[in-house]
Write a structure and sequence with these properties.
The structure holds 2 protein chains of 2 kinds. Chain A is of the alpha+beta class. A 4-stranded antiparallel beta sheet of chain A has the order 2-1-3-4, with helices on one face. By secondary structure, chain B is an alpha+beta fold. In chain B, strands 13, 14, 17, 27 and 29 form a 5-stranded antiparallel beta sheet that branches. In chain B, helix 2 packs across helix 3. Chain B contains 4 helices and 29 strands. The chains are: A alpha+beta, B alpha+beta. At the A-B interface, strand 3 and strand 4 of A face strand 26 of B.
């Protein structure tokens, strides 16, 4: 399974990774991640949109960053 | 419309959304409208009538306002002090009147729109009527034209009949004449009479001619013995000519030359024959041009200075010499001058010898602007050429010595064992320019990217990051830092077939956790394996990817052992072919990352030195890195001082 997640600050101001959605194919996950990155432009609590692979019930390895196209100027 | 029907129920108001002709007829109030003198909702009223009536009302109002305005104007002239004001009022009233008039016209136009349907149908009917009249007219014209054609046809028929009658008469005459000629009989009449024709008997009599006199013809022949011509005829008046032959002539009848005696003999029938003496001259020197064919010279041929021996005959002028002797062209300064090409043609070995220690030189003729060069070929293929800058050699050079004192072969063998190796050092942040970390990843390099240039061969690419962290304060129990190294996928990444896998779960010396298993492939593949790459079993994108979690090369067995997943659907079995992609089959431009977590080491006024080393890909492409850091908790405060990056490229030999 290919997993799309994101990093956010929780109520204790600690960054944590949240699983957004799991997909059967990499291509579907890429499209989902790009959509999530666009939707997160104005949500400053979302720090990163990331993509990875679920290898078992408890282990997900993230290895790709999908940049949120924010204007930081 | 609102003013006109304002007191009626909604469903009786013509033009309202709820009104129909039926509701109007059934529920209309039949009282008189005092404004327009029109019966509101009367059974007879229609939408068109309503609009017309309303328009008439507005028109009347407009006229009334106009009159009022005029009256006001008159009054204004009377009241001089108020004249200007009254005129304005009058103008205003007049404008209002115009507005009502325009409104009336609009209503009237609306009414006209409703009547346009009927007019349109009437117009259409009129059009059809016009079309019918047109078709009728066309039919009449066609009938008239047909009648005319019929009359013309009748005239032609009459004329044709007349011609037929005349033709029949001519045919009868012709037939009669033909019959009379066929039956004609010819007879011969007496000589001197006239020709006559008896129509009764059909006999044509032609008189015979008078009898002529006999002819007198000569026949001639030539007698070569006597030289006479004899003429004879039937009338006996034969005669002959005299001897027509002339006297015999005199002269030579032949001649011959005897090369053994040198005497020429001439013969004649008239006694003029004679013989010459020996015509051959003495042997000696021949001066002037010698036009010889097949001459043998027993001595030297000398050509005076300024002259030359020229050949201009045949396709290939040749100077032949005896095959057993050496042929020399000698001279203090010997020039072989070929204006087109110069060939040395020998069936065996052609050798150019240079006597003593002299040098064979190919040099530019002093009088020639062209630069001379030497070209050597083998089997018509160029191998060696001198040029302005040196020499060009095609194909291999085999040396038994050295080049500038170096044994090229030995040096090359040594070079083959030396891998390409390059180290670059980038200082990415100034010492005194610190960066305050937050919970959001920030690039700790002052430049956005750290770039490792392309390499001439594929190399294992390493990056070492060194930085200093100073903790300003710590306020949470989670006091960790996260370092992220990002790599932008280059455009020329290639897949490597690692080979056929063999399950290594039964081998001792290897341990694994749940969902993990070892396998091995032949050869050393460790230079390929990194945290950024992935394996799969198809070699193409979108297949299930596996992580190389750990790896080890056994030099004794020459095997690379790899630890990876062992789950349903994600595992490697014996016989599987395993492929490696250095960037996990991600598209060029995609950002891959690896993160490392670090514990805080709070020291008052002290700094924590951090060094991280990453192996990224076995590649020859330019690789773009980004070094980022963040705090896990925003409740702490750490700053980054100097950042240094060391980029190392090492070829696998």
């Amino acid at each position: 399974m290919v997993v799309v997640g994101y990093t956010r600050l929780n109520s204790e101001n600690i960054a944590e990774i949240v699983v957004h959605q799991e997909y059967d194919s990499k291509q579907e996950a890429i499209e989902g991640a790009e959509a999530l990155a666009l939707a997160s432009i104005n949500d400053e609590t979302i720090l990163d949109v990331i993509r990875g692979t679920r290898y078992n019930d408890t282990e997900i390895v993230y290895n790709v960053v999908h940049e949120i196209p924010r204007d930081n100027s | 419309m609102g003013g006109f029907f304002k007191n009626n129920p909604e469903d009786t108001v013509v033009g309202s959304t709820d009104a129909t002709e039926d509701t109007i007829n059934e529920t209309a109030v039949t009282e008189t409208d005092s404004t327009s003198s029109f019966y509101r909702g009367s059974p007879e009223q229609t939408t068109v009538d309503g609009y017309v009536a309303d328009a008439s009302g507005h028109a009347a109002s407009a006229e009334q306002y106009a009159e009022d305005a005029e009256d006001s104007s008159v009054s204004a002239s009377y009241f001089n002090s108020l004249a200007s004001q009254q005129v304005n009022i009058a103008q205003s009233a007049a404008n209002q009147a115009k507005g009502y008039r325009d409104s009336a016209l609009q209503h009237k136009n609306s009414a006209n729109i409703s009547t346009q349907g009927a007019s349109q149908h009437a117009y259409t009917a009129s059009g059809y009527a016009d079309d019918a009249a047109g078709y009728a007219n066309n039919a009449s014209q066609f009938a008239t034209t047909a009648s005319g054609h019929a009359t013309t046809a009748s005239g032609h028929a009459t004329t044709a009949s007349g011609h037929a009658t005349t033709a029949g008469q001519h045919a009868t005459s012709a037939s009669n004449s033909a019959s009379s000629i066929v039956n004609l009989t010819v007879a011969t009449g007496a000589a001197g009479t006239s020709a006559s024709y008896d129509a009764a008997t059909g006999v044509l009599t032609i008189p015979a001619g008078a009898e002529g006199e006999d002819g007198n013809v000569y026949v001639g022949s030539y007698d070569e013995n006597t030289g006479k011509v004899n003429f004879i005829n039937t009338s006996g008046t034969n005669f002959s000519t005299g001897d027509l032959r002339g006297e015999d002539g005199s002269g030579f009848t032949g001649g011959s030359y005897d090369s053994s005696t040198g005497i020429a003999t001439f013969t004649s029938d008239s006694g003029l024959g004679f013989s010459t003496s020996d015509l051959r001259g003495e042997d000696g020197t021949v001066e002037g041009a010698a036009m010889l064919t097949g001459a043998d010279f027993t001595g030297d041929i000398s050509v005076p200075a300024g002259n030359s021996i020229s050949t201009d005959g045949g396709t290939t002028p040749t100077l032949n010499t005896s095959a057993s002797n050496v042929t020399k062209l000698k001279g203090a300064n010997l020039t072989l001058h070929a204006t087109s090409s110069f060939h040395v043609n020998t069936p065996n070995t052609a050798t150019i010898d240079v006597d003593d220690s002299n040098v064979f030189t190919a040099n530019r003729d002093q009088g020639n602007a062209q630069k001379a060069q030497v070209l050597l070929k083998y089997d018509d293929n160029e191998k060696f050429r001198t040029t302005d800058s040196g020499i060009d050699v095609t194909d291999n050079i085999t040396l038994s010595g050295t080049v500038d004192g170096r044994d090229v072969a030995a040096d090359g063998a040594r070079l083959d064992t030396m891998p390409y190796h390059r180290v670059r050092y980038d200082k990415c942040r100034h010492t005194d320019l610190y960066l305050t970390l937050t919970s959001t990843h920030q690039n700790i390099s002052q430049a956005p990217n750290i770039i490792s240039p392309a390499t001439p061969v594929k190399c294992a690419r390493y990056i070492d990051i060194q930085t200093e962290v100073e903790w300003r304060y710590v306020s949470t129990a989670t006091n960790d830092l996260v370092f992220r190294l990002e790599v932008v996928v280059p455009i020329s990444a290639t897949v490597t077939n690692l080979g056929s896998a063999t399950n290594a779960s039964n081998y001792t010396g290897f341990s694994s956790n749940n969902y993990e298993n070892w396998f091995w492939v032949s050869g050393d593949k460790t230079h390929l394996l990194t945290e950024f790459g992935r394996m799969n079993k198809t070699g193409v994108s979108n297949a299930t990817e596996l992580i190389a979690r750990a790896w080890y090369y056994d030099p004794a067995l020459q095997r690379t052992y790899i630890l990876t997943e062992s789950n349903p659907g994600i595992s490697v079995s014996t016989g599987d072919t395993v492929y490696w992609h250095p960037y996990a089959w991600e598209a060029a431009g995609t950002t891959l990352y690896v993160e490392e977590y670090m514990d805080e080491r709070y020291v008052s006024n002290g700094r924590q030195n951090i060094t991280l080393k990453f192996k990224t890909a076995y590649d020859d492409s330019k690789i773009v890195y980004r070094a980022l850091m963040r705090e896990v908790s925003s409740g702490d405060s750490a700053v980054i001082y100097k950042v240094k990056a060391t980029l190392t490229d090492v070829e696998e030999v």
